[in-house]
């Protein structure tokens, strides 16, 4: 039995640990063969693969990114796309099962391929923690850790200059990274997409912290929207020439806070360093367990399912479970953080 | 209402984050007053406390250890011990509720005090992850992360010299830290107290790795026992003069492996660095949530209960839930790791 | 004898280690008393000080920022400024010597005060490594380390997506942080203020790396200027509406590279996290040695001098040595890096 | 021209950065070919080599250890040893120059080979910083950083339990790692081989710190010797049965301190984690510069020389400069540290 593995969508620390665990256990304990499908669904559609063996995956669990490359190709598009074409490609390459590792888009395509009769299982990946079908996925913990260390650093420089520091973290649609980073760094305000707030509301906290002679720290998701402002403004803000500009929300907030409170403010946009580099120990464990469980799903021919963390256990659920709404930060979790604001 | 907080037993990254969250939310949102009880139950029995306010806990969530000190005193021992004496002390100090943060011993005493009518709630703490009443507690994630980074470092020096590296991590009775560290570092063998193994079994893996021209990495819990050897020998081994010695199991294993396989072997005993220093982001989040929930338990007068993580939520359970058997590594979790041995 | 210590200008990891070493050795071995002057020269001019003792500095060598606060006030400006007024303030506060820790501006003012007869010694501080009078100062090593770790992270995500990653680091006038970060991360091009280059020159390297199927990494100082473009354009670039915008040079370069090469490009601006947080071990050692040597300078009444690193030794030099030209990256050091470009 | 590179002796973070820089610049800018000599002089004597090209060294500057392997073989020993045999081997393999990277033993052999007419240049490597011919070498900075982070961690757990923590770091003959780690962590006593002290002297500091209600931190080199005790005892100490035991000096000191002062004491022996893992940014820069300069030495046919750091510059010196006395910690540097003891 020959298994093809692909990683699709944005990269995430832990992808290689999934691949490594799957390949090692599959080869040693189930006699499977493996190929890596290059650059996600692009490689699947174009039949671009390479053999994976023990030495391909050696030492990779502690390396960020994906050794297989990734893309945002949709396997139902293009001249070679569609289930029928993919089926032919798989047959030609002798691939009997596909392990698709990715987020909602990846899993939606994987689920459709499975519905169309192809032998596909899924592994959920989302650095933003926005998939509802699993308690957590790998990558999120690493991102929070990196953002936490950055926030710790910002606090000491903020304190020295009595500045308001604004830290923008990932999270276009959901606020999980900001929520956990805000709690971990002791942020005075945390702003997430699920909870629009006005600039006045924000400045009130900032001012009260400053009045206690503390340097305010604001953690904000990239997808946070300022209440009472049209979305484009909120996203773009105004530059020094009073024209809409293209910076992130952190770069918008800092000058607005400074203008309204008179408190010197600086923003830092963490960006891609949140998704690169060595995965945390916890993420390597979770990714490894997902890889092992995905091999079980393959040997059980449980097409259309994906692996999932529930409490402390790895279970198997329909891929469709991951395809409804995003997992947003619920109100009670935001209120937890809010208890410590100011 | 005045709340006394104590930390008891071995220290653990995250203790200060519990204290900080409890004090901040209790003061700001519930009008509570706080005192810190010094050195665990010693301070409770002796009435040794100090006022805790906002500035006492400022910036402490990212600092390891406990700002309150800790000890292993049993509140039922000594001339001032026992529930009746403690009740008098609490009355004298005007303390209306006690938050006891600690492991099994601490919680057992806290539960007994609650049974004896005292207003006590618990917060579970175990760096070893050996408490059954909660999915995880704070400190464990940090310990795994530190051990994982150490293991990563050992691998490169092992590879350079083609040595077998033995990494001894904490875990006197349970193997959780070793299990997760072994998976995260890609250890070739992981040895835990729950699964005694013979030296021959271990050496077989070590040799097979070496034969593939890889430097073997062995991760071992301090409480692992070699099968087929009396316990004292297993614990103490023999020194160069053929007498029992007092080193950890890692220091015992390395020369045994070297003697049997001829492969140069070195051991590293991580020791106390696993429990000190800044908590990981994840541990700060969990500890903060525990602190908030413990204040809820106090305002609800839910004496005799403790906070607990179940899946992604914090719940309240009877403290007695934590007092039965230790949470050992179940067989299926060890088998997961075993799939990747060799 | 009573010593006042001030920190002035941008903060820098290691400031507290200087203060701690000075206070501890001064108190214990020379019977000195200490006050901390708040917020740099602002506190000096306004007479805003607080007593420093052993407990004020306890545990601070590993904490970033400055416990004294900082500002960019010039002691020769304002109604209470000028040497005569400062002399009166010092007399009123009983301060017999001032230790001024800061960069070129700070040391220029300190030197002028010393020339005007005040008892001032200097400690050089520059995170950018732009002071000529010392081999290195504290803070620089930490900044390079943080930027190196960020660059390592960017590489794995760049490799996964085959993107060109642009990392902007500090260095408004000199390229030392970029030079060392570029070497340490194995950047394919490093761009510094001392060496203007054209966008075509940059893209040639980027393209050649991409053609070898590697993801290009570009490290750039914030003060780098694109050759053949007017400075404002170079600094501001054009936004999506073809108007000058205010992003850093990294945010300017990435879209220019993408436009010219067709290679997807992303920028990360590290910003303030480079100057916050725990100092590296090396910076703590250097800062501590500076603090000890500054006390020697004070007890020797060597007013107008500053401490300096020469090779492995700390020496004393005239403060005026630090006030000429900035220490720029010499050509031969840039050529070193250039040997590894592409 | 074909260059063989070997790494010999204990491994050290930065070795791969030397190799990478040499190979890249040598291939691209000088048209050189490269082979890696396996396992130090063993590979030289046995003619065990492999081709090194761009892809062999890709991404290795941030990886610890040595991709070439290492050993402690002496090239003048064994049936194929000696200059004449080695010369034949080099000729047979078409190797025109050898770059030997290592410590005193390695450089002594390299120098002898050069004296015997072989085309050899050296690159100094010593994690202990004990080579006199260079200000610093790579690896030392990383080791100090790792030990500093460990010391930071030990402080918080020490403070929580009011224990004396003893941290043993590397340094069999010289105390540089301990000296810098002690300064960086704010140790209350630092003990180095160059400065024997009595247990009473040590305990006096420990007691005075404890009396101020601080948890004492002792940093000790593995090669420190207790004054007034015969060396074997000092090295081995007594175990719980009053017999000489084999633990490191840290494991000897902790119980002696506890016995004499009554203060609970714990030791941590850092061991091999100090020499493994990713090099610090500073070490990668230094190693890279050494690699570049070594290629210059080779193209200049400067046989018998080695590269060296002097201040901020890389220079070329006779290898014999490294072969006299070890570079010990001078008295004035130890006195610096001593000023902050207690």
Automatic annotation (TrEMBL), chains A, B, C, D:
<dbReference type="GO" id="GO:0005945">
    <property type="term" value="C:6-phosphofructokinase complex"/>
</dbReference>
<feature type="site" description="Important for substrate specificity; cannot use PPi as phosphoryl donor">
    <location>
        <position position="105"/>
    </location>
</feature>
<comment type="function">
    <text>Catalyzes the phosphorylation of D-fructose 6-phosphate to fructose 1,6-bisphosphate by ATP, the first committing step of glycolysis.</text>
</comment>
<dbReference type="GO" id="GO:0005524">
    <property type="term" value="F:ATP binding"/>
</dbReference>
<feature type="binding site">
    <location>
        <position position="163"/>
    </location>
    <ligand>
        <name>substrate</name>
    </ligand>
</feature>
<dbReference type="GO" id="GO:0046872">
    <property type="term" value="F:metal ion binding"/>
</dbReference>
<keyword id="KW-0963">Cytoplasm</keyword>
<dbReference type="GO" id="GO:0047334">
    <property type="term" value="F:diphosphate-fructose-6-phosphate 1-phosphotransferase activity"/>
</dbReference>
<dbReference type="InterPro" id="IPR012003">
    <property type="entry name" value="ATP_PFK_prok-type"/>
</dbReference>
<feature type="binding site">
    <location>
        <position position="266"/>
    </location>
    <ligand>
        <name>substrate</name>
    </ligand>
</feature>
<comment type="pathway">
    <text>Carbohydrate degradation; glycolysis; D-glyceraldehyde 3-phosphate and glycerone phosphate from D-glucose: step 3/4.</text>
</comment>
<feature type="active site" description="Proton acceptor">
    <location>
        <position position="128"/>
    </location>
</feature>
<feature type="binding site">
    <location>
        <position position="104"/>
    </location>
    <ligand>
        <name>Mg(2+)</name>
    </ligand>
</feature>
<feature type="binding site">
    <location>
        <position position="10"/>
    </location>
    <ligand>
        <name>ATP</name>
    </ligand>
</feature>
<keyword id="KW-0547">Nucleotide-binding</keyword>
<dbReference type="GO" id="GO:0030388">
    <property type="term" value="P:fructose 1,6-bisphosphate metabolic process"/>
</dbReference>
<feature type="domain" description="Phosphofructokinase">
    <location>
        <begin position="2"/>
        <end position="298"/>
    </location>
</feature>
<feature type="binding site">
    <location>
        <begin position="103"/>
        <end position="106"/>
    </location>
    <ligand>
        <name>ATP</name>
    </ligand>
</feature>
<keyword id="KW-0324">Glycolysis</keyword>
<keyword id="KW-0418">Kinase</keyword>
<keyword id="KW-0479">Metal-binding</keyword>
<comment type="similarity">
    <text>Belongs to the phosphofructokinase type A (PFKA) family. Mixed-substrate PFK group III subfamily.</text>
</comment>
<feature type="binding site" description="in other chain">
    <location>
        <begin position="126"/>
        <end position="128"/>
    </location>
    <ligand>
        <name>substrate</name>
    </ligand>
</feature>
<dbReference type="GO" id="GO:0016208">
    <property type="term" value="F:AMP binding"/>
</dbReference>
<feature type="binding site" description="in other chain">
    <location>
        <position position="222"/>
    </location>
    <ligand>
        <name>substrate</name>
    </ligand>
</feature>
<dbReference type="InterPro" id="IPR000023">
    <property type="entry name" value="Phosphofructokinase_dom"/>
</dbReference>
<dbReference type="GO" id="GO:0042802">
    <property type="term" value="F:identical protein binding"/>
</dbReference>
<dbReference type="GO" id="GO:0061621">
    <property type="term" value="P:canonical glycolysis"/>
</dbReference>
<feature type="binding site" description="in other chain">
    <location>
        <begin position="170"/>
        <end position="172"/>
    </location>
    <ligand>
        <name>substrate</name>
    </ligand>
</feature>
<feature type="binding site" description="in other chain">
    <location>
        <begin position="272"/>
        <end position="275"/>
    </location>
    <ligand>
        <name>substrate</name>
    </ligand>
</feature>
<dbReference type="InterPro" id="IPR015912">
    <property type="entry name" value="Phosphofructokinase_CS"/>
</dbReference>
<dbReference type="GO" id="GO:0048029">
    <property type="term" value="F:monosaccharide binding"/>
</dbReference>
<comment type="subunit">
    <text>Homodimer or homotetramer.</text>
</comment>
<keyword id="KW-0808">Transferase</keyword>
<protein>
    <recommendedName>
        <fullName>ATP-dependent 6-phosphofructokinase</fullName>
        <ecNumber>2.7.1.11</ecNumber>
    </recommendedName>
</protein>
<dbReference type="GO" id="GO:0070095">
    <property type="term" value="F:fructose-6-phosphate binding"/>
</dbReference>
<feature type="binding site">
    <location>
        <begin position="72"/>
        <end position="73"/>
    </location>
    <ligand>
        <name>ATP</name>
    </ligand>
</feature>
<dbReference type="Pfam" id="PF00365">
    <property type="entry name" value="PFK"/>
</dbReference>
<dbReference type="InterPro" id="IPR022953">
    <property type="entry name" value="ATP_PFK"/>
</dbReference>
<dbReference type="GO" id="GO:0003872">
    <property type="term" value="F:6-phosphofructokinase activity"/>
</dbReference>
<dbReference type="InterPro" id="IPR012829">
    <property type="entry name" value="Phosphofructokinase_III"/>
</dbReference>
<keyword id="KW-0067">ATP-binding</keyword>
């Amino acid at each position: 039995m020959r298994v093809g593995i692909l990683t699709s969508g944005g990269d995430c620390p832990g992808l290689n640990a999934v691949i490594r665990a799957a390949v090692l256990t599959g080869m040693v304990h189930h006699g499977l063969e493996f190929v890596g499908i290059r650059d996600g669904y692009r490689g699947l559609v174009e039949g671009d693969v390479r053999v994976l063996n023990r030495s391909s995956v050696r030492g990779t669990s502690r390396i960020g990114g994906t050794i297989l490359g990734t893309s945002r190709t949709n396997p139902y598009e293009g001249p070679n796309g569609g289930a029928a074409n993919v089926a032919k490609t798989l047959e030609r390459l002798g691939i009997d099962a596909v392990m698709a590792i990715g987020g909602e888009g990846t899993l939606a395509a994987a689920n459709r391929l499975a519905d169309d009769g192809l032998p596909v299982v899924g592994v959920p990946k989302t650095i933003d923690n926005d998939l509802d079908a699993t308690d957590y996925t790998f990558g999120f913990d690493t991102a929070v850790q990196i953002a936490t260390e950055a926030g710790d650093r910002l606090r000491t420089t903020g304190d020295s200059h009595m500045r308001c520091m604004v830290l923008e973290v990932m999270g276009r649609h959901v606020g999980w990274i900001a929520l956990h980073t805000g709690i971990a760094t002791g942020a005075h305000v945390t702003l997430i997409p699920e909870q629009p707030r006005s600039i006045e509301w924000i400045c009130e906290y900032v001012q009260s912290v400053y009045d206690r002679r503390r340097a305010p720290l604001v953690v904000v998701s990239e997808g946070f929207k300022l209440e009472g402002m049209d979305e484009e403004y909120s996203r773009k803000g105004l530059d020094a020439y009073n024209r809409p500009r293209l910076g992130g929300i952190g770069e918008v907030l800092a000058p607005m806070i400074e203008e309204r409170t008179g408190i010197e403010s600086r923003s830092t946009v963490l960006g891609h360093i949140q998704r690169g580099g060595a995965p945390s120990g916890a993420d390597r464990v979770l990714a490894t367990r997902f890889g092992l469980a995905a091999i079980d799903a393959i040997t059980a021919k449980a097409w259309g399912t994906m692996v999932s963390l529930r409490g402390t256990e790895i279970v198997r659920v329909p891929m469709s479970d991951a395809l409804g709404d995003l997992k947003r930060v619920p109100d009670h979790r935001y209120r937890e953080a809010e208890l410590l604001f100011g």
